[in-house]
Amino acid sequence: MTYHPKSDFLGVIIERGFLADCTDLQSLDEALISGTVPAYIGYDATAQSLHVGHLLNIMLLRWFQKCGHKPITLMGGGTTKVGDPSFRSDERPLLGPEQIDANINGMQQVFAKYLDYGAGDSDALMLNNAEWLDGLNYLEFLRDIGRHFSVNRMLSFESVKSRLDREQSLSFLEFNYMILQAYDFLELNRRYGCLLQMGGSDQWGNIVNGIDLTRRVLDHEIYGLTTPLLTTSDGRKMGKSQGGAIWLNADMLSPYEFWQFWRNTTDADVGRFMKLYTEIPVDECDRLAALGGSEINDAKIVLANAVTTLCHGAEAAAAAEATAREVFEKGGVGDDLPTLALTSAEVGDGISIVQLIVKSGLAKSGKEAKRLIADNGARIDDAPLTDAGLMLDAAALASPVKLSAGKKRHALVKLGD
């Protein structure tokens, strides 16, 4: 990135690695130094909690507010009834109004930890697009809004094209989603003066649609900015562990398990994750990431403590670190752990988690292993193991995997050749 921004916000996000693309970086920069800018990110209410996959953009909103601007968290009370088809191979299950409201309530609890809501200039706003979508008149909407959309252009967007290229069905309901999201940006600009939509790079087409629509209907100049879609250095989607999603609500994933997820970060990801998921100064992130040997584990603890403090509070982070030390240091977990070394031939295209639990001595039979999983007594890398059908391939075992039965019995599984 050769552009040197004048605004604090763009300076921070470029230095820390948040920026993937922007519709007009220079004009946005000018707007950001001219006064308080409102910007939004939309969140469909598809689950009762947000997960680590959402955390990058939550941190983006946090930096936006810290730099003196106004973040808007837009809850998709309306759009969730349709479902975002972007880069999905199938249609999302449709949720009822009660479930959508319950999910929004759970998600709001997470945002309150990262953003300050209120009536001030740079206080965050919590909005719900059901406010303007639920009452739409279909014929008026088609006439006033639908006429601005070219089907040819909509078919060219990667999110739609990838689905059609695989000859997978794309319902008319889902095809409407991008029109509704574009309309959200128009309404937020009209009602709240919102100048910027931010989101993951998979949302680029939807964001550009909203900018075009607002120019056509209101003749207003607005902007879009995207963040990179993150994968870990071993190629996994960020926010997913072998035990399932890493939720941000404590009642869905304990602060200790959340802390462990960050403590288990791959060495190569430590510096990048510090810049994105904490507020540790960039120079310190680089210094910690450069530590070698076992010292990198100290950097991982700094990372885990900083991320957990933001999400669950300093006390929860300190308690998680203390528990981890108790388990790992005093419980003889670590180098003393019984280790099962498998050959590539034994792993083949994949080996079942039930087999691994038996082979590592944590259960005497497959039946006992399945019961252990069903009774919530099994863990993988300290995260709850709930899927008895889980298969691990050679890539998943490239770094040692820790299996646990109860609180005191542990084993490591790794590739030995």
From TrEMBL:
What is an example of a GO molecular function annotated in this UniProt entry?
tyrosine-tRNA ligase activity
Q: Which UniProt keywords apply?
A: Aminoacyl-tRNA synthetase, ATP-binding, Cytoplasm, Ligase, Nucleotide-binding, Protein biosynthesis, RNA-binding
Main location (coarse class): cytoplasm
| Superkingdom of origin | Bacteria
Query: Looking at the keywords, is Cytoplasm present?
Result: yes
Q: What class of enzyme is it?
A: ligase
PROSITE patterns assigned: S4 (PS50889)
Please tell me which stretches of this chain the record labels as motif 'KMSKS' region.
Answer: 237-241
What does the record list as coiled-coil region(s)?
Answer: none
Listed Pfam families: tRNA-synt_1b
Subcellular location per UniProt equals: Cytoplasm
UniProt binding sites for ATP = 240
Residues annotated as binding L-tyrosine are 40, 177, 181
User: EC number(s) per UniProt?
Assistant: 6.1.1.1
UniProt catalytic activity: tRNA(Tyr) + L-tyrosine + ATP = L-tyrosyl-tRNA(Tyr) + AMP + diphosphate + H(+)
Q: Where is this motif: 'HIGH' region?
A: 45-54
Partners and quaternary state?
Homodimer.
UniProt cross-references to PANTHER family, sorted A to Z:
TYROSINE--TRNA LIGASE, MITOCHONDRIAL, TYROSYL-TRNA SYNTHETASE
Q: What does this protein do?
A: Catalyzes the attachment of tyrosine to tRNA(Tyr) in a two-step reaction: tyrosine is first activated by ATP to form Tyr-AMP and then transferred to the acceptor end of tRNA(Tyr).
HAMAP family named among the record's database cross-references: Tyr_tRNA_synth_type1
- What family does the entry list? Belongs to the class-I aminoacyl-tRNA synthetase family. TyrS type 1 subfamily.
* Protein known as: Tyrosine--tRNA ligase
